[in-house]
Design goal:
This protein is an alpha+beta fold. The protein has 3 domains: 268 residues, PAS domain (Beta-Lactamase); 147 residues, Reverse transcriptase/Diguanylate cyclase domain (Alpha-Beta Plaits, 2-Layer Sandwich), CATH 3.30.70.270; 250 residues, Alpha-Beta Barrel (TIM Barrel). 48% of the residues lie in helices and 23% in strands. The protein is built from 23 helices and 29 strands. The strands form 6 sheets. An 8-stranded mixed barrel has the order 21-22-24-25-26-27-28-29, surrounded by 5 helices. β15 and β16 form a beta hairpin. α13 packs across α14. The chain is elongated, with a radius of gyration of 49 Å.
Length: 755
């Protein structure tokens, strides 16, 4: 109890530690989410702002080009033309033309006669006017206050050249900075501050969220030492990849510590108009959002810790009275009271320490237990499991061992013995005891079981392998029911082989590995009466796989209906084509499995195949086995009658080995009785077999049935069968199963011989 109390409080501290770690991780993740969201919004805004200014300056460049063209046509055009342009563009405050010496020639605001303005002599305009004269591109100048109208103006200039490249004049336009800023604010209300900075001189030419009172402070002064966000403009250029000649830009995003505090910034450079676009958002806004979320997380975390603390305190208080009950439940099956699978590994380790003493592991599974659950309900099944557990415990009364319920109707028994004779005797007595009748709610049940046995250390030295081997052996024993089987390499290899066949069988139909051969059936006059379609499988991976191996596996995995339908279609198609081509007449017998026959749509699929491939020559016989009659005969009769109505014959295959009775034969609308090979093998030597075959033939004849004997392998057997009145013969004495090509030769030979 002390250790439990100590451990549970350690668990609580671990929960606190993990919770704190998760809280910190959650806050960190939320911080990154908010930061990335802010960066994403800022980047999006920067792109919009960049494109907005790029479009604005492009528009002005076009305007300058148009004015330049007009000037070249008529250098004396008047101010009225400029006034009309200003009306169309409210952002423009002035359009002027200066001589290349810097003198004003024409302006919409100032009369030329009274102007003393010379842009080359003015220290505020000289650098950008000179740059305009030196370059072919449009030049954006440093903003300044136009005293005449008391407005801040952003000058844009471009020179006018003639066809020889001689500079004639300079066009200068001025954009109203206050109106441009106001328009941007009305269209994009946001918390980020946007700024445009000239590459030449690092003068700011536009800044949002700026009052008119601060214009002189921002627009009259350049960035100190050409530094933007603690980096020189040349350093920023090395980080940017600018696509020359395109109106696109690369972007830099980072954090910077400025005098005003930490900010998130985004920077882009416009190569065409040589200006920088930057956006900055106070990092404090990210923290404010984070604080709101962190408060919610913290409150939830504290509540969770309080709840966990209360729960741990409650568990500690009641644990003393519950510890024995919990321990028992942890290691025992609630239904049967046996040890559960958690004890199996624990007990194995205990036995393993006794290395000088080998032991056996028995894996028991009840046969057809699912049928009881499905038919009578799980309450009946549970009562049977309880009784089985009691019988297993009783069987160990005179042995050293442990019984455990592994799962469902599976039990594991440790038997502390290395003597295989003793183990086998115990397994046999256990099978016998488990198969005794069970009285459940006045109903008597008889159920068998199957046991697989693996020995330590001969078969395996770890529990997982030992369980697997015992399970494999049980699976093989279950094929015969009420059997036990020791693990062996041959059993293991057989199971592995079956698994290989199962996996390859899924691909056999797709890869066209399934083929058919046909064994002839001859009448008393050696005339070809019919053929039986037999399936063959030549696997690319496994080679030739016999039908007696893959057919049962196909039945187990539910592939038989699909395989049977494939055989039905292929046989009808091949035989129909052969008969039409060679003008032959004989019956085609097709085996149909129980699972295929009881499919709801079996008769519809059979009719579809007959309609698709039937011809005047072909007659179809469907062969069924006696195991089909486990199913309700009332449910099968309508199918039989529908087949008869469509001229499809019905043959009872392997007669005498299954479930049929004389009364059942009387009710069944069958046409043919097929005597199993096991009755034919010894009729020449064994009088009992001979008498039985004669009785079967006589019974068939009395019922008006055609009787066919299969597995006929020598002349004496033929003579006895003919003497008894058998109608049709099939076996290696007449012909082995033939390919379609060989069958064609065989059929023509028989036809020609008779003719």
């Amino acid at each position: 109890m002390f250790h439990f109390k100590k451990n549970i409080w350690l668990l609580f501290y671990l929960v606190v530690f993990i919770g704190t770690t998760l809280l910190a991780s959650t806050v960190y993740i939320k911080h990154e989410e908010i930061l990335n969201e802010t960066k994403h919004d800022q980047l999006y805004l920067t792109k919009i702002y960049h494109n907005h200014l790029n479009a604005l300056f492009t528009e002005h460049e076009i305007l300058h080009n148009l004015i330049g063209n007009e000037y070249l046509k008529d250098p004396n055009f008047n101010r009225k033309t400029f006034a009309n342009v200003l009306k169309l563009n409210p952002l423009l405050l002035d359009i002027a033309i200066f001589s290349k010496q810097g003198d004003l020639q024409l302006s919409t605001l100032f009369p030329v006669a009274n102007s003393r303005t010379n842009l080359l002599e003015n220290s505020h305009t000289r650098p950008w006017f000179q740059e305009t004269l030196d370059t072919e591109r449009m030049v954006i100048g440093k903003p300044y206050l136009l005293q005449a109208i008391n407005k801040w103006i952003l000058p844009i200039r471009k020179k006018i050249t003639d066809s020889q490249g001689e500079t004639l004049a300079v066009i200068s336009t001025g954009i109203d900075l206050a109106m441009l800023t106001q328009r941007w604010y009305e269209e994009n209300n946001h918390q980020s501050t946007m700024q445009a900075t000239l590459d030449h001189g690092a003068f700011r030419i536009l800044r949002t969220n700026l009052s008119l009172d601060n214009y002189p402070h921002y627009y009259d002064k350049s960035q100190p030492d050409n530094i933007l966000f603690n980096q020189t403009l040349s350093q920023l250029k090395t980080r940017l990849t600018v696509k020359n000649g395109q109106n696109t830009a690369s972007f830099i995003q980072d954090l910077a510590l400025l005098e005003t505090g930490k900010v998130i910034y985004t920077i882009a450079y416009n190569e065409r108009f040589r200006f920088w676009i930057s956006a900055e958002t106070p990092y404090q806004l990210v923290l404010q959002k984070l604080y709101r979320h962190s408060f919610t997380y913290s409150v939830f975390y504290l509540l969770l810790i309080i709840i966990v603390f209360s729960l741990v305190s409650w568990i500690v208080k009641i644990e003393k009275s519950k510890i024995d009950e919990l321990s028992y439940k942890a290691e025992h099956d609630a239904l049967t009271g046996l040890a559960n699978r958690t004890v199996i590994k624990k007990h194995f380790r205990q036995l393993q320490r006794k290395t000088e003493k080998p032991f056996a592991l028995l894996y028991l599974d009840l046969d057809h237990f699912k049928n009881i659950n499905d038919t009578f309900g799980h309450s009946y099944g549970d009562l049977i499991l309880i009784e089985v557990a009691k019988r297993i415990v009783q069987s160990l009364a005179s042995h050293h061992g442990l019984a455990a319920r592994y799962s469902g109707d599976e039990f594991v028994i440790f038997l502390e013995s290395g003597d295989k004779a003793e183990i086998a005797a115990y397994a046999q007595s256990l099978l016998k005891g488990a198969s005794l009748p069970y009285l459940i709610n006045q109903d008597v049940f008889k159920i068998s079981s199957s046991i697989g046995i693996a020995c330590f250390p001969d078969d395996a030295t770890d529990i997982e392998t030992l369980l697997s081997y015992a399970d494999n052996s049980m699976f093989m024993a279950k094929k015969k029911k009420n059997q036990y089987l020791f693990f062996s390499k041959s059993v293991h290899h057989q199971l592995m082989r079956n698994i290989e066949i199962e996996q390859a069988l899924h691909h056999a139909l797709i890869h066209d590995e399934i083929t058919l051969v046909y064994q002839p059936q001859l009448d008393r006059n050696q005339k070809l009466f019919g053929v039986e379609a037999l399936v063959r499988w030549n696997s690319k991976k496994l080679g030739n796989v016999p039908p007696n191996l893959f057919i049962p596996i196909a039945e187990e995995i539910g592939l038989m209906p699909k395989l049977g339908l494939y055989i039905m279609h292929k046989a009808m198609q091949e035989i129909s084509s052969l008969q039409i081509r060679e003008d032959l007449h004989f019956k085609l017998s097709i085996n149909v499995s129980v699972r295929q026959f009881i499919q709801i749509d079996f008769i519809d699929k059979l009719m579809d195949a007959c309609k698709k491939y039937s011809s005047a020559q072909i007659a179809i016989t469907i062969e069924i086995t006696e195991s089909l009659f486990i199913e309700s005969l009332d449910a099968l009769l309508p199918i039989f009658h529908k087949m008869k109505a469509n001229y499809i014959s019905l043959s009872l295959d392997d007669f005498g080995t299954g479930y049929s009775s004389l009364s059942m034969l009387k009710e069944l609308p069958i046409d043919e009785l097929k005597i199993d090979k096991s009755f034919i093998d010894h009729i020449a030597k064994n009088n009992s077999d001979k008498a039985m075959v004669k009785s079967i033939i006589g019974m068939g004849k009395n019922l008006g049935l055609l009787v066919l004997a299969e597995g006929v392998e020598d002349k004496r057997q033929v003579e006895i069968l003919k003497e008894a009145g058998c109608d049709v013969f099939q076996g290696y004495y007449f012909s082995k199963p033939l390919s379609l090509k060989d069958l064609a030769v065989f059929a023509k030979e028989k036809r020609d011989t008779i003719q």
